[in-house]
Write a structure and sequence with these properties.
The protein has 10 helices and no strands. By secondary structure, it is an all-alpha fold. The chain folds into 2 domains: 144 residues, lambda repressor-like DNA-binding domains (434 Repressor (Amino-terminal Domain)); 30 residues.
């Protein structure tokens, strides 16, 4: 009998997805954080933490207030996630099979990591064992790089790292946004 991974999708908070969905809905309405916080009757700090997936697990009443302020039903943000997750798991079964064969490699994955891993497809379809192992290594490398960046940001090199990351980000994001605007014209 093979061991199962210690964390699987659904074991952790859906905060990052919730935050992303709130930002999308807020942006769609042209509201800034202050406006949504005021409309929901919560602090801007609470809303910021919610949108960024930081802080404690949000209270259902807080999520309810935000949903109501946006004019949406309480669980509006979760419906797509459940359907997409189920589809990804069903169409990429090798992920669980490989996790069962190599539980130590998968031991520290978060639910977000599992979601990402299940959603990756290789050339021609679902991942093979090699593809699953490659993707897990990439996830772990990315997590370690982010941890290292967080350490650097807390040092005297923080400003330099921030400037470098912003410069790189603009080279990736702004050209795509600029070409989209050109196409609109």
């Amino acid at each position: 009998m093979s061991a199962q991974p210690s964390v699987s999708p659904g074991d952790e908070s859906p905060q990052p997805l919730l935050g992303q969905k709130i930002r999308e809905q807020r942006a769609h309405r042209g509201w800034d954080q202050s406006r949504l916080a005021r409309e929901a009757g919560i602090s801007r700090t609470t809303l910021s933490q919610l949108e960024n997936g930081k802080g404690p697990e949000p209270r259902p009443s807080t999520v309810g207030k935000v949903s109501q302020a946006l004019g949406l039903p309480p669980a509006w943000w979760d419906d797509d996630r459940n359907a997409a997750s189920a589809f990804d798991r069903a169409t990429n079964p090798e992920v669980q099979a490989v996790a069962g064969r190599y539980p130590e490699i998968f031991a520290n994955l978060t639910s977000t990591d599992w979601e990402e891993l299940h959603s990756v497809f290789g050339t021609g379809g679902a991942l093979t064992e090699e593809g699953v192992l490659t993707q897990v290594a990439r996830l772990q490398e990315k997590r370690e790089l982010i941890r290292q960046l967080e350490v650097v940001l807390e040092t005297h090199l923080g400003e330099a790292a921030t400037a470098m990351i912003r410069g790189l980000y603009e080279r990736v994001v702004l050209p795509a946004e600029s070409s989209a605007k050109v196409e609109e014209l």
